[in-house]
Amino acid sequence: MIKAESKGKSHISRRWKLDIRDIVNNYNFKLKETFGAHPAHKCHLCGNNINYVVVIDGDEINGTGHRTHEIGFDCLTLVLGDDWVGYQVAKREIEALKKAAAKERRKIKYADENKADIEWLKSLPENIMNRQWYLQKIYKALTTGNRVFNKSMEKYLARAKTMFDPAEAKKKEKEWNNFIVPKFEKLIVLIEEVDGDEGTLGFVKGVMANGTRYHNLTDGMKEGLNKVRERYKRMKAAHGTAPTSGTLRAELDKLPY
Ligand SMILES: [Zn+2]
To answer: pTM for this one?
Structure first.
């Protein structure tokens, strides 16, 4: 039953072993709870400071006594052993507590030491962030502490800073949203008015989605859109349903492609 002797911890006194053996042998201990203790608590068994506490409680086997003890996981292993009923749960919970504490410590550290990095990442427009999964991972690491901000992340971030200019990218994003997107929307309305051809709509929407990723259109895309626009303008004119006032036509004429 008692594991202290078999594990042979030299600093543990004979007296301690006997006391603990009595307690463990005479009580039916179960796991009550685990928690992180800051400041540290004292282990009821060895007296050491412990930041992660396992609370065990049990009824006296041949009596009416009841005991509750706050102990460290090391003592738990030593005294109750890894075949004890609450061992696996206690182990899992303590590991989770340690992991959460490490995450929190990293988060606080990064908020202080990597403030400029975090600000830079925040200033990146969404369309860049959305296609940069590794920058997303770095941002998450720095803002949540969910993982260590390692050397390879550090290098990648330094390189990204030379590749992306957030101010320039923001400007492009604004232009795209304010001027280009409405033009796409008008072209889509025109197609829908004329024949609503799904293939053509799919093409235009696909080009729009692709352009939105980079806030940019290739010459090929512009050419393709131009052909669609011309064709639909002609079709609309031929059917006698062209925009009466020329408002839509004027808008379409302003398209940059
Ligand atoms: Zn202890």
So the answer is: 0.61
